[in-house]
Amino acid sequence: MRPFFCPIFTFMSAPTSPRSIRIGLAGLGNVGLGVFKNLEKNGDLILQRTGANLEIGRVAVRDLSRPRDAAVGKSLLTGDWRELIADPDLPVIVELIGGTTDAYDLVCGALRAKKIVVTGNKALLAERGQELFALAEECGVPIFFEAAVAGGIPIIQVLQEGLVGNRIVSIHGIINGTCNYILTRMSGAGLSYEEALAEAQEKGYAEADPTLDVSGWDAAHKAIILASLSYGFWIPAKDIYVEGVDTVSITDFRFAERLGYTIKLLSVIRADEEGRVEVRTQPTLVPLSHVLSSVSGSFNAVLVNGDVVGETLFYGRGAGQDPTSSSVISDLCEAAAILIHGPRHSGFVPHGLYGKSKPIDETVSRYYLRLTVDDQPGVLAQVARLLGDRGIGISSVIQPDDLADTTGSTALVLMLDDAPLGTARAAIDAIDALPCVQEKPAWIRVETLLG
Ligand code: HSE
User: Fold this and answer.
1) Active site annotation includes 114
2) Which atom of ligand 1 sits closest to the CA of residue 151?
3) Which of 375, 336, 419, 337 is nearest to 55 (CA)?
4) I need a surface site. Which of 180, 201, 299, 447 has the fewest CB within 10 A?
């Protein structure tokens, strides 16, 4: 007699004979060790969910003599990543060595050897993604890169799968944990920039070379990847605009707060009506009333606006050992699914609706402008005229009495209406040249995030 009750998990359970999948891991830094430990910790669960027993079969490290965590057996280690490529029993290679030279050779070698590649290397993909995905296509093996953007937030899957039926209207992202940590500690605890950076490094958020973080380029690399996935062509790095956090001052935080804003390193991605794509990463005023303003510490958040779904927000830890290894493990499970069930695509699907970058000088936003000027009548009128001549309106002005000093100078802070960057820069240069302006103007873009 057929059973009356047939539990649904009978149809959903993994194949009964588990498949062992050996992985070659290149790089045993913070994230590599996290992958190792978390595969040990949750291997049984992953086996039940995927039908695959994921096992690190070989680990390539740069320096064999360095002391290692006891969890990683010495017999697994090699000092030469080429051994991973040459080993026919490693169908999946995880690239976590960073940089764009050895990592490039390693990824190309793995693809040519028909191995699935998993990488967290945003610089590599942002700079050489186009050629790497062409090679992946040619070799018939994919590259997965969930860990390359926003640490533990599965934003790549969101764009490739969850929102596949949407045109992406815009993305606003806080996608560098180190910079967000620095800005949060500067604004909240009054730490100096250097103190806050040292803390972020101690906690393992920063890249091996932290100038990549603080210059804005780590976030910019991630923005290039998100934009390229969203708009279907690889955005050239030369077409994007990047500024770091090292110029942000405590003074600007205080003025921003008086105006109802905070400062975040924000990556903005959007296409205009002609399909021209704008990608920029820079310190930006964000309204205190908007949820992005409360994303603090090493947390990341990505606000994606799709034409069908509307606004969606993804929040989580954007850096650190466990969150980032969670994304690597998700890619390993994708790799396992392909090895068990067959291929899907190369990891990046180009499409043809877009294809042009928008010149940065044509990108439009509001601006915060802080001037140090002579404390005398008529100064505001001179500044307003230079802005008005170029069609730039002023939405508010503050000239705080408490910041007038005995040398006869004072701060003058203006919020400017929407203007193309090129026009705003020309106006700011003209203002800078006024004799009544005593210091180089400080300006920051403003996103109202009104949808
Ligand atoms: N250094 C990066 C960050 C790590 O701070 O966000 C994740 O890419």
Assistant:
1) no
2) 7
3) 336
4) 201
Distance CA 224, CA 240 (A): 8
pLDDT at 344: 73
> At 311, which amino acid appears?
E
Tokens of 50: 């995927």
Q: Which residues face 311 on adjacent strands?
A: 305
Last residue of a domain, one of 341, 373, 403: 341
| Average pLDDT per consecutive 10 residues, the chain (451 residues; last block may be shorter) | 34 61 96 95 92 96 87 91 98 96 98 98 97 96 97 97 96 97 94 91 84 96 97 94 93 93 97 94 97 96 97 95 96 94 76 83 96 92 97 92 66 96 98 96 94 62
Q: Are residues 278 and 221 in the same domain?
A: yes
Comparing C-alpha atoms, which of 277, 281, 273, 270 is closest to residue 234?
Answer: 277
Residue 416 domain flag: yes
Q: What is the CATH number of the domain that holds 414?
A: 3.30.70.260
Q: Please state the domain count of the chain.
A: 3
For 318-359, where are the E strands, in sequence order? 356-357
Say whether both 143 and 195 belong to one domain: no
The pick from 207, 221, 321 for probing ligand 1's pocket by mutation, whose C-beta has the most ligand atoms within 8 angstroms, reads 207
Does the C-beta of 213 come closer than 6 Å to ligand 1?
Answer: yes
Residue-number span of the structural domain to which 387 is assigned: 365-446
Q: For residue 82, what is the domain's CATH number? A: 3.40.50.720
What pLDDT does 123 receive? 97
| pTM metric for this prediction | 0.88
- Ligand 1 atom closest to residue 120's alpha carbon, by position in its atom list: 8
Domain identity same for 55 and 189: no
